[in-house]
Amino acid sequence: MDGTRTDHATMVSPRKAQASRVHPLKALAGAVTPTGWALTVFIAVALILAATLEWVEALACALAGVVALVLAATRVAWKPPHVVSIRVPNERIVAGQTAVGEISVRNERGRPVRAGIIELPIGSGTGEFVVPPLGAHEKWDEMFLISSRHRGLINVGPARAVRSDPLGLLRRVRSWDEPVVLHVHPVTIRVPFDATGFQLDVEGVSTGKLSSSDVSFHALRDYEPGDDRRAVHWQSTARLGKLIVRQYEETHRSHHVIVLDTSRDAWDHDSFETAVSVTGSLGLSNLRESRPVSVTTTETWLPSTVAMRLLDALSEVSSKSFGDLPLRVREAVAQRPGVSALTLIVGPQTSDMEAAHLARLAPIDVPVSIIRIGADKARARRDLGRGILLDCSTLDDLPRIIVAGGLA
Questions:
Q1: In this structure, are 265 and 386 located in the same domain?
Q2: Cα–Cα distance between 229 and 86 in angstroms, integer?
Q3: Mutual orientation of helices 269-288 and 307-316 as an angle, nearest 10°?
Q4: Torsion sign, CA atoms 399, 401, 405, 407
Q5: Which among 154, 185, 216 is the end of a domain?
Q6: pLDDT by residue (tens digit) across 97-133?
Q7: 206 falls in which pLDDT band (50, 70, 90)?
Q8: E-assigned strands of 13-115?
Q9: Residues 261 and 240 both lie in one domain
Q10: Which structural domain range is residue 297 located in?
């Protein structure tokens, strides 16, 4: 039976990794470190001096260098004996949270091996794990933490098993080609308001709001002054001897379209992160109510039928050096003809006049809300005629401005 050694915790067996194969000559050249190349040049120069000047000391130095390289080569001649796999149980976290990962190392040989080094790239940095001596086929597990200060993607791996000599002349690396992608979602907040937008539509869904005229029948009731005579139910009227009318439930159509301006010149870093969080918060508020929502940047539509897919897409959103927001608004309302509410997320440099122009791009029967993000903007609500302009400085302000003024 294989031995197993666990540090901190033992978790379920990770996915199997596969070692990448490299051409022998390329692997040999890649094993020489900058220090090793410097020693090689030194040996060549010393040999030239010894041959041309008959300098005995130079020959001795060259031989010492050759011996050092030979000893280093014997140390790294065999590939690292460690089989490495990594696992991150939760591959989706929110910015500011910490993810927990596990690295599992197994000695694939039938005899004990000495301590080794495992390198694990995490984002732009690299973690280093010192693996203790392992017995035949023994396994060693180690837990590690991944901090996430900002939204985005963090690549964890591929892990590298490393063998090197004490002088650092040669370094042999065995890579394992199964990196894990950690999605860091934007911070979102629950919006305590139905900001979806409705339009009456006979093909919509029934609601609990009663109406005297619609297509979703609810019940019969006594006639009241002002009721439409066309709603009179004559059979019940004849049987009961008084006017009885049909009661309906309103049917609503709801399709919220959210447009996020991703033009680079419209944002500073902090404001753009707030804008992404606002976009995610509004999108999730629709999905929680099972109402259609479409989210787009100035470049492309984002998947928005499932909350997790929307958040994954928002993890990768970045500001671009180009983007035509007015053109994208026109395209959005044309490609989503059933839109019942339009929300635009714009940068702090957007003027009231520009916001009013954007509001006029939507169909006249579609309410438009423009949320202007900016740290120096006080919470305010302005009527644009064809829509409203809301100033939002931080994500925490979003519920307050919606409760105070609401979306259009």
A1: yes
A2: 72
A3: 170
A4: negative
A5: 185
A6: 999 999 999 988 888 888 888 889 998 888 889 889 9
A7: very low
A8: 82-87, 92-94, 98-107
A9: no
A10: 256-404
